[in-house]
Amino acid sequence: MAHLASRYMKQLLILLESRVISDELYRHFVKRGLRVLSPSRDFGLNSLGEILPEIVIGASSDYVNKMKVPYQATSYVAARTKQSGKGIYIYKIPHKPGGGVLSLTGGIRKLGDSVFASTHRILLGSKAMMISADNLVTNREHIWNWQFFGKAIRESNPHIYEELVKLSEKIVKDSIFYQIVVARSDKTFRRLKLANLYQKNQIRILDPKNGIRVIFLTNQSGYDYMSKFLPESDLIEYIVTGKTFDMYSAMVKVRLLYHIDVLLNDGGRIMSNSLRDLGILGEERVTLEPYPGSRFISDNERIDPKSILGIEGSGIDGGEIKNGIRIHSTKIRNEMANVYVYPLDERLAIDEI
User: What is the pTM assigned to this prediction?
Assistant: First the structure.
């Protein structure tokens, strides 16, 4: 796997020499390095390895160990909006149920995205996944695990599904999993009627019989309000950042108190962008889908700017993702499984620079 790291370093050097990135940014990405896993070589999972020969994470284990906040990653599926023309990719269709995510892949759960999303959740979300309170309520019947994607290929590709099960068993066997929920204040809890939904047992991850450890990140007013209905217990904990909600302070406490060094951010675009802008979102994994056809995305319909995930040419390196650098790409049939890295603010992220 040394050739991947070498190719990445050459890519960074080209960006530096062409003055696309600064000396400081170059040194940052070189210091971060990469972690490259091979399903075949590292885990003996040959069928999975045929689809994903290498799985790339945008920071080395040594770098992650030096961080004082968790190394965060997020993931999306996005579809090209036209058969030809300027490359715009959207990740949701607002007027369709569930954001129209299934329409992005032509009305089916495709192999590439199912496998890419499953491995991502297993490798980067085995210790913790973070969601917004809004996402929790919208998807209250959902439990955030890799099976959500993996079950789509259980019958069509049973041998690959079985290897995903084996990968999960190898990775999570020693991990305590936490579901982290961001609710910035009592206003969030009240607006979503979270206490009422909990009392009616309508939120699966808060059902004690499911045994899921949940950490709420909130401010003092959020704690004072919600803890009356959902007190701390063996399964429920709160991280309170004071009178004003402070995401960075919360992330430091998540790392310090729970020893969570890596987490999957599944909170939605607004939340992931805010963490990216803060400088503590490390990477993004995106399955780019071809245009699924006018039946699913109208060629003539105006694109909602809030639905756009990427535009070709908008990335630091000229890629699709604004503020990102594409570091790896795997073609899976007609899908592209891509990994992008974002710059981290090392003044916030690293114990010692």
Answer: 0.95
